[in-house]
TrEMBL record:
GO terms for molecular function: glycosyltransferase activity. Keywords: Glycosyltransferase, Membrane, Signal-anchor, Transferase, Transmembrane, Transmembrane helix. It comes from the Eukaryota. Pfam families: Fringe. PANTHER family: FRINGE-RELATED. The keyword Transmembrane applies. This is Fringe-like glycosyltransferase domain-containing protein. Belongs to the glycosyltransferase 31 family. It is found in: Endomembrane system; Membrane. The keyword Nuclease does not apply. It is a single-pass membrane protein; Single-pass type II membrane protein. It comes from Chironomus riparius.
Length: 388
């Protein structure tokens, strides 16, 4: 009996050791299999990133099917986003897994929004429609605060009545910017470029410059008009917008005198936002949230955008010098450099005319030199021949 008992005891020990051995073998095989799956997953990582962005865009459109539906019924449906691989791309981005995606951008990949108001329909808006609007009729949309059938007809129903307040006030400015952003999200464009109604935009150069930036990377492109970043003091409203919202009273008190800093792209010069950045902004800026943040920080639309992008999302402003606003001296831009610029502007304050130096048409008929600039760049247009 004793021998039998000892035999059974040794047998159990042997079986236990064998079971442990099998367990280690199984774990080794599972680990290798998981590693193989990770390699496959990583090789497709960039495609997954693109898929996530496109999925988010589709979900946004499903939840906003009535967004400006009355306008879109009268226009051609915007084309689907195309991600093309091309050996001729001006820049290809290679991610850590070796997958290359072409950054090709053409005009139809860009959504261009122009903020305006009823007061300027017959002046600034008319000037745009007769000049650079003709370069991108299908891509440009005007965001205004009045129903104007005359300009609806002139723009092929590209006037969006935002129902925001009229005038140059913070609330109405943020409201219109929010509408522009939501409209862009409802399309499948790769870039959103915003301009003001006192801009002239050199469309071919805009397209050329955007080809240096990949739409599936987070890009905030523009130009500041101040020499140092905006500064503001931390407060409870700002802390509530940060990603970690569980701030204690002690932390709030400790940070109440803390200064935060961020850059912003001047709206009057124009700026561009990539699709990837717009998707990242959605939880903070879509469907009225942009206006709410503007109310909390008490700044206008372009500063609010910089606060969201630079401070909350930690995406830095990339300075693109060919953007220009009326806050710069237009006469400092040399004529031989006109073709390399993206945007121009103009202003007349008291006796100061801030306009580009270009001789073509009489100043009484072209006081802001926009017709002259347009015809210098694109003399083939009929308006240039007729004015000669």
């Amino acid at each position: 009996m004793l021998k039998t008992f000892m035999y059974m005891k040794n047998y159990r020990r042997i079986m236990m050791v064998f079971a442990i051995f099998l367990m280690y073998i199984s774990m080794y095989l599972i680990h290798n299999a998981y590693g193989s799956l990770c390699i496959i997953k990583n090789s497709e990582d960039n495609k997954s990133n693109v898929g996530d962005i496109e999925t988010a865009s589709r979900l946004y459109k499903v939840n906003n099917t009535n967004l400006f539906a009355d306008l879109l019924m009268n226009t051609t449906q915007m084309q689907n986003l195309r991600l093309e691989q091309s050996e001729e791309s001006s820049r290809d981005y290679t991610n850590t897994h070796g997958t290359e995606w072409s950054s090709n951008i053409d005009l139809d990949d860009i959504f261009i929004s122009i903020k305006t108001t009823k007061k300027y329909h017959n002046t600034r808006l008319k000037l745009i429609i007769e000049t650079w609007f003709q370069l991108a009729r299908d891509q440009i949309w005007f965001f205004t605060d009045d129903d104007d059938q005359v300009y609806q007809n002139l723009t092929n129903n590209h006037m969006v009545q935002t129902k925001c307040g009229q005038g140059h006030y913070r609330k109405s400015l943020c409201c219109k910017m929010n509408k522009e952003f939501d409209f862009f999200l409802s399309t499948s464009k790769k870039f959103w470029c915003h301009f003001d109604d006192d801009n002239y935009v050199n469309i071919p150069t805009l397209v050329k410059v955007l080809n240096d930036y990949h739409a599936y990377h987070e890009w905030y492109l523009g130009k500041p008009s101040i020499s140092s970043p905006i500064e503001m003091y931390m407060n409870a409203a700002i802390m509530s917008l940060e990603r970690n919202k569980n701030h204690s009273k002690d932390e709030l008190k400790r940070r109440e005198n803390e200064k935060i800093k961020f850059w912003f792209a001047t709206g009057g010069a124009g700026f561009c936002i990539s699709r990837a950045l717009a998707i990242k902004m959605m939880p903070l800026a879509s469907n009225g949230k942009f206006v709410a943040i503007g109310d909390k920080i008490r700044f206008p639309d372009d500063v609010t955008l910089g606060f969201i992008v630079e401070y909350l999302l930690k995406v830095p402003l990339t300075v693109v010098n060919p953007f220009h606003s009326h806050l710069e001296r237009m006469d400092h831009i040399e004529m031989e450099d006109f073709r390399d610029q993206i945007s121009f502007s103009y202003a007349h304050i008291k006796d100061d005319w801030n306009i580009v130096k270009v001789d073509r048409f009489d100043t009484t008929k072209d006081p802001y030199r926009i017709y002259s600039l347009h015809c210098y760049l694109f003399p083939q247009f009929d308006i240039c021949k007729n004015r000669q």
